[in-house]
Amino acid sequence: ERYLAKVKALLHQELSEENGDATSLLQASNGCSKNGAYGSDEDSERAGPDGEEDSAMEMEEAAASSSSSSSVPTPRARKARRSRSNGESKKSPASSRVTRSSGRQPIILSLFSKGSNKRKSEEVNGEVKQEAMSVEKEEEELEEKEQEEKRIKIETKEGLEIKDEITQVKTTTPAKTTPPKCVDCRQYLDDPDLKFFQGDPDDALEEPEMLTDERLSLFDANEDGFESYEDLPQHKVTSFSVYDKRGHLCPFDTGLIERNIELYFSGAVKPIYDDNPCLDGGVRAKKLGPINAWWITGFDGGEKALIGFTTAFADYILMEPSEEYAPIFALMQEKIYMSKIVVEFLQNNRDVSYEDLLNKIETTVPPAGLNFNRFTEDSLLRHAQFVVEQVESYDEAGDSDEPPVLITPCMRDLIKLAGVTLGKRRAVRRQAIRHPTKIDKDKGPTKATTTKLVYLIFDTFFSEQIEKDEKEDDKENAMKRRRCGVCEVCQQPECGKCKACQNMVKFGGSGRSKQACLQRRCPNLAVREADEDEEVDDNIPEMPSPKKMLQGRKKKQNKSRISWVGEPIKSDGKKDYYQRVCIDSETLEVGDCVSVSPDDPTKPLYLARVTAMWEDSSGQMFHAHWFCPGSDTVLGATSDPLELFLVDECEDMQLSYIHGKVKVIYKAPSENWSMEGGLDMEIKMVEDDGRTYFYQMWYDQEYARFESPPKTQPTEDNKYKFCMSCTRLDEVRHKEIPKVAEPLEEGDGKMFYAMATKNGVQYRVGDGVYLLPEAFSFSMKPASPAKRPKKEAVDEELHPEHYRKYSEYIKGSNLDAPDPYRVGRIKEIFCNIRSNGKPNEADIKLRICKFYRPENTHKSMKASYHADINLLYWSDEETTVDFRAVQGRCTVVYGEDLTESIQDYSAGGLDRFYFLEAYNAKTKSFEDPPNHARSSGNKGKGKGKGKGKGKGKSSVSCEQSEQEPAELKLPKLRTLDVFSGCGGLSEGFHQAGVSETLWAIEMWEPAAQAFRLNNPGTTVFTEDCNVLLKLVMSGEKTNSLGQKLPQKGDVEMLCGGPPCQGFSGMNRFNSRTYSKFKNSLVVSFLSYCDYYRPRFFLLENVRNFVSFKRSMVLKLTLRCLVRMGYQCTFGVLQVGCWVTPRR
């Protein structure tokens, strides 16, 4: 009572003395908020970007009164609902019970002391300061001594007294403040509907202890339980209440869980088989959670929709809410049951219209116990966002061969009518499961540090993981970010049929309308959302076959629009070649670039360079060397729409196909290219005027390689008709033609030769060769592999889960692996003599000595498990094969003739084999090889039948020097290894002798220490790669430890393997935040490449890097490297080919 009396005295004294000054001071300092309420300067400083207040006190105990003191009035009642005054909001006893756990509460006097700082009267300030000190000390003593119930009563009385005093202030100042919100559940603290959790009974158990209770066990002491603990246990919970950590009862369907807000629930937990919602037989549990996920199931035609929670320990199916939580839960029931109706109706009715769906909803009777008696169209549209998200989630849980429900016509109509925003909560829903004990301690991964070029390319894909520059918020980038760029819709080409396409310049339009193709408008298509969260496709997508730009028919010429300019410059047979031509009053000459009209008007205009023009019996013609647009390369829709690529495709065309003249600029790399990394270069290479393009690379359509354009110059003789594509294609065809050389002698109707060539490779008598597996067979027939049993029909009632085995495919099975090449030694090269006495050089034959592999012997495949992969067995068996079966050249030597160890010999180069024994297939025995077999350099005159003198040990090295080019001693490349680990990738380059690792970056200290021990001369940075890159880009020479940072021009090779967890097919949570940050390290690695501009760049990752997100990461990576000016390609390698014991 003494404490309350002093508080009242302070209020009356200050209100009576400062009544006039307080009014004028509030009018000068308070600002008007958006909803018309006024707030103090202190309130506006605490307000966040969305208007919420970040109070220094705990929000649940004093936020309602933090914005009010004797000088700050209470908020007025809002129109939408009745607001409770600050004093009333403090009356709930439950509030005090919940908030005691968060620490010591601020007392009311502290609020008055804050308000007194704004007052101008020194006399009053002095009194307030002195009395505040004494009263605060007395209040602290009361707080330590009095019991819990007494404190609650005192706080209630305080609230009543303050309410009376504040009512007096309300008559003097009409200002209002913004109603405060709870920082967790986002409910208004002055809302009369806000309820507090009343607490758990005394016998309630914690979750781990509750789960071990015998009443929840499915087995007795004599029965064995489950042998696997991969799945969480499932129970039911009744009389439940859901609340946040401040004790506010709140709904769980408003996105709080998705935003990592900790929600808990309490109730009576019952075994999974118990369907009785009463409390009998249940185990009272308290503070279960936090809730990691909530879900809906029961889409099997039953009456009720089952709702469940998932915590770190178990899954819980909800039964009946508690009395206090029932009103909140009832509001969620309508949309939950509506989503059940929609999903079940569309399961078997995929072609229905929106009207059919609406009729189904309106004729469905809601289950008993709900607060409504019918479903309406208004309720469907009101809850459309929730219903669509549940349909998406249902599609995700389905099998891969099931058509998604979301793309049905009625769902598309619902999305359009209700204005549903696809992907609104999907990305958030995939965030990592929270670990409450680490929330405050773990700062999380840093955002990727990028150069401007890499940022502009990857910003759409890793918008939340890349550190943004506020200066880059221009309109163009903002428009770009609206497209996801990942889904099938964004990556498909323009249709060429809609109005927007027909207006594009590339389709022959004017280009005035800047609208995108109507079929590529990403936000309004359901396919986009289905793609964003689909699981990793383990199959590498097939690359589209190269698009041939051939015309299917001849076009009728209109000679009135085409006329030659000048006289012919050359006459070659029946062709008269010209230098210039006029088409539609536009003059073209040889070397100009033109757009060509396709036969199909829905296809974009082709682009080509005119390499020759002539007139003959076919009409007025020109030779077109085609350009390939970036969309037709592996880059797809990620490419620059103005970038073209040279390809080896050309064609003779009629001049009437020319649509108009265009400008194609060659962007050659600058002389100072290596020092331009990291500069603020524009992503646009040329201005988009509809007629200007650029190219900087030649594209190999077969191997998806980007290379520098070939430098083939015309001669004076063919300058008037020189075509670079024709020249290169002629060279390739010429190399592919098999040829024989160095004839020896003729006999037995054959002409023998010492050498044959194919694809630029020379093959001589005595050389080892690779042959196709079907080129010849062995005497020993291999055991046929076990055939997979055929899938037979089973009784689904007896085996209800058998449908899950929808495929007999075994990942990684060797049954489908192709056989390795056969290996042989050339004994003779010959051609048969024709009837006219000339050799048939188009049909070249080889006489081959067979080599056995260990698995080709009678020991079968098991023999290869313990044998060297390069080990062969000599045999006296011979056969004749066609030269077309030869696939390459190899080296086969006798192991005893080597001047070095077998290991060093095998590691010294590719395609090296050896044999130590001969195999006799008839006796199934291993013997010593004959002398002529040991003479690996027996290059006689063709018919020597293997007779010759054996060579000494030095002969092997002599022969190898003839077959293999001399090893060039080149200086080792100065290398930076990012994500180095313990140094495996660097060690491979060291063994290859091409690099010297001078710098390495590894954040994990044990791995970094191992790298230091393996490479003593390397500077190892044990820091975040993003932090180091930021230091280098800011001009720093050393890091925080004084280690020298590599500068521009220092790094000649950059290698690294960014973390693969986010791309791996074993990671089923690769769409969560943690994995996204791991994946964004690819962007950091590319930024290193862009800044340092090394001569060579290598990125290594798992196989699924190619197929992840429809190959989007791979395409963006290639797009970055091409834009930097690198020649680049990619490949999926089988590491077993490099004798590595893993897939």
Rg over alpha carbons: 40 Å
What is the approximate shape? globular
Helix percent reads: 25-40%
Strand numbers in spatial order across the main sheet: 5-4-3-8-7-6
Residue share in β-strands = 15-25%
The end-to-end span amounts to: 80 Å
Q: In the CATH scheme, what's the topology name of the largest domain?
A: Arc Repressor Mutant, subunit A
* Number of domain units: 5
Low-pLDDT residue spans: 20-139, 142-174, 426-443, 470-482, 523-538, 550-554, 937-962
How would you sum up the major sheet?
Answer: 6 strands, mixed
Number of strands: 35
Overall mean pLDDT? 75
3D architecture notes:
The protein is α+β, with helices and mostly antiparallel strands. The chain has five domains: 2-170, no CATH class; 207-217 and 230-428, Arc Repressor Mutant, subunit A, CATH 1.10.10; 559-730, Bromo adjacent homology (BAH) domain (SH3 type barrels); 739-778 and 817-963, SH3 type barrels; 973-1138, 3-Layer(aba) Sandwich (Rossmann fold). The protein has 31 helices and 35 strands. Strands 5-4-3-8-7-6 form a six-stranded mixed β-sheet, covered by helices on one side. The chain has a six-stranded mixed β-barrel with strand order 14-15-16-17-19-18. Strands 24-25-26-27-29-28 form a six-stranded mixed β-barrel. The longest helix has 24 residues, at 122-145. The radius of gyration is 40 Å and the shape is globular. Residues 20-139, 142-174, 426-443, 470-482, 523-538, 550-554 and 937-962 have low confidence and may be disordered.
